[in-house]
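Sample intake sheet
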Amino acid sequence: MSIKPNYEKIENWEFYPAEIMVEYEQSIDEGLDIEKYKELFEAVSKLPQDEIANDLGDTLFKIVLNAPMRADYEFNEPSDLEGIKALRKPYPIKGSVNRDTLKGKIHGAWLGRICGCMLGKTVEGIRSDEFIPFLKETGNYPLTRYIYRTDLMADIEDKYKFGFTGNMSYVGDIEGMPVDDDTNYMVLDQIIREKYGKNFTPYNVSVAWMDYQPKFAYCTAERVAFCNFVKGFTPPESAIYKNPYREWIGAQIRGDYWGYINPGNPELAAEMAWRDASISHVKNGIYGEMFVAAMLANAAVTSNLEDIILSGLAQIPSTSRLYKSVMDIMNKFKSGVSEEDTFKYIHSCYDEHTGYGWCHTISNAMIVTASLLYGGGDYAKSICRAVQTCFDTDCNGATVGSILGMANGVDSIPEYWTKPINNILHTSIFGVGTVKITDMVDKTIEHIEL
């Protein structure tokens, strides 16, 4: 007699062989020398979800875990904090905290993130080959406003594969900001800072994840990490064990609060982001969160977009893929490459039609960078460009909105964007539920030590 799991009932995010080709692509991008096993990866990817696939997945994970680096790999990408710090290129901080305007900046960051997230949430998962025709058909191209249920034409289901009619997240249908992981993490991070103090550890974060949200609140790398916590894996191993999503965007969307509470101190913001990211991500997955947190910390003391971006890059290895990709975007902007050509370039680097390309940290960080630069500090133009480009629309709209809200303050965000939110944020955090955004701002101010 034997007792076995019902493998067919296990979700793909929790069954390593189900996404084994994501693992292969991730490993190749990391520089692991595994190309000789490609046919084996492909064969396992075609198996039914059963015990044989599970056992072969164990074997492939061992291959990945013990694979040497390719001799010709050009990047150096550590995951430990000291290793990261050793490979940084410093960039000077050119401003100081103004106590009189700080609260307005923090309020702007919260609202900017929430409104940008709401814009992208309505169309999360759509690809540009459908989104652009839809925008043109509804008189909203280039994107300049929220998308409403009234934009939906009678025959929309016949025209588009994207499930417009099944989506419940339309401005006009909502009472406050609906539950979203991009905003849940801000509230959860605030709880972590309140409960454990400024010296919280990666392990503290892992415990908070289990205490305050159910498993189904977590996606991709976060879902894998959560399941690993339950199995007894602790950080950083929780980020590594059978986690093909270890460089996806999930950590990059968790960095904002660490920037909020460290105005003018991008190094400490990035360190806190590392403590958070290292429970579920490695390498560029970690760097993405550090990059965003550091940008926000510097946006508290300057509105210069180039300074903000370079201060973020100064906290990650200059020898990394993320650093190179962000600098590619900045160099294109500074050399006069058009906005249209720069966004086409991003699409040429990553395929939005694959889960890996759509959800990777680097593809989305490139979009954030380009949207900030070509948006020129204009809130509406910037979040709209971030969302119109597709990939992870709600995440990128949120990050761009957060940075500009911090840089320019709450008064820089037009009422058109904030009015539907009505100072209300819904969460799925246990014991929290619905909160007032202004209360979150007040608590954020309490967590700032100047």
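Comment: Residues 7-65 form one domain. The chain has a mean pLDDT of 97.
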